[in-house]
Amino acid sequence: MKAILTTYDRVVGMIDNNKVESLVLLFTRIVFAGIFWRSARTKVDEGAWLSISDTTYFLFREEYAGVPLPSDLAAVLATVSEHLFPILLVLGLLTRLSALALLAMTMVIQLFVYPDAWWQVHSLWVAMALVLLVRGAGAISLDAPLARARAK
Asked: Domain segments of the chain: what residues?
């Protein structure tokens, strides 16, 4: 038993450092951003950057009608948010704000659009958002040099 605990302690010692944490936070930012980025790209016309498709407006009027905002406004807010915040997450810029915004979107989706998707999907999104809210972007980010500059 002592040998197992010693091995366990060695492994924990190897992964319990800023470099590993920064890589894990980078991976979390990329994965979380990718979820919303892929969704964002389905909301715009083929080949367009932010030209919201007629299908998107239709979906917000019909399938996502439970969202407590006017459907046209919700379509625009969702499309812009799903483009902007993933970019910021990948850059590691305003990470906590971006994670909070996408957490709020996740909860709107959970509560008003797909209430049966908690355990299959949304709980994982919330977990990633909470990790980024609590830990921030890590050293491999634009937030890191900005934090150092503010500290001076």
From this structure: 25-147
Q: Can you tell me the distance from the alpha carbon of 42 to that of 31, in angstroms, rounded to the nearest whole number?
A: 17
The CA-based angle 142-29-101, given to 5 degrees, is: 90
The tokens of 92 are what? 């590691």
Task: Measure the CA–CA gap between 111 and 64, rounded to whole angstroms.
Answer: 11
Q: Tell if the pTM clears 0.90, that is, is over it.
A: yes
C-alpha 4/C-alpha 25 separation (Å) is: 28
pLDDT digits (tens, 9 = 90+) for 72-129: 999 999 999 999 999 999 999 999 999 999 999 999 999 999 999 999 999 999 999 9
State how far Cα 118 lies from the chain centre. 16
Classify 44 as helix, strand or coil: strand
